[in-house]
Amino acid sequence: MTSLIDVIFLLLLFFMLTSTFSKYGEIEFATAAAGGAETDRAIRFVKLEANRILVDGTLAAFEDMAMVMATDKPQTALISLGQNATSQQLIDLLSVLKGIDHLRAQVIG
C-alpha cells in the first residue's frame, strides 16, 4: 500500500512537468521627469479613465486611438491615469500607442 505523501509528491511532479509556462510580453514606458523638455516634440495629453479616454480634452474611442494619435511629426503622449483606471487598461493603451511611429508615451502621476 502506498503512503499518502508519495501520492502527493507524484501528483506534484506530474503537474509540474505537464504544465506550460507562458512568457509575458513587456511594455516599455517612461515616467515623466521634471525639466529637460524637448521643444521639437509636440505634446499630447491623454487622460485614461475607467470608461473613457480623453485626448487633448476630446473624447476618443479606444479603437480609434491609433488614428487619432498618428502623425508624421515627433510627439510625446503624456498619459494621466484617472482614479478608477485599471492597470490592464493602461497596458492595452500602451500596446496601441507602441505601434504608432514618432510617438513616445510617458505616464505621469
Structure write-up:
The protein has helices spanning about 5-20, 65-70, 85-100, and strands at about 30, 40-50, 55, 60, 75-80, 105-109. The protein is α/β, with parallel strands linked by helices and about 110 residues long. The protein has one domain. Strand 3 (about 55) and strand 4 form a beta hairpin.
Sheet with the most strands? 6 strands, mixed
Structural class: alpha/beta
pLDDT averaged over residues? 82
Strand content: 25-35%
Shape: elongated
The percent range for helix content is 25-40%
Low-confidence stretches: none
Q: How many whole angstroms does the radius of gyration measure?
A: 22 Å
Quaternary status: single chain
The count of strands amounts to 6
Element order, helices and strands? HEEEEHEHE
**What is the count of structural domains?**
1
Query: Helix count, per DSSP?
Result: 3
- CA-to-CA gap between the ends? 62 Å
Order of strands across the widest beta sheet? 1-6-5-2-3-4
Write the layout of secondary structure elements.
Layout: H1 4-18, E1 30-31, E2 42-48, E3 53-55, E4 58-60, H2 65-69, E5 75-81, H3 87-98, E6 103-108
Parallel strand pairs: 1-6, 2-5, 5-6
Antiparallel strand pairs: 2-3, 3-4
Features:
6 strands; 3 helices; alpha/beta
Compact description:
The protein is of the alpha/beta class and 109 residues long.
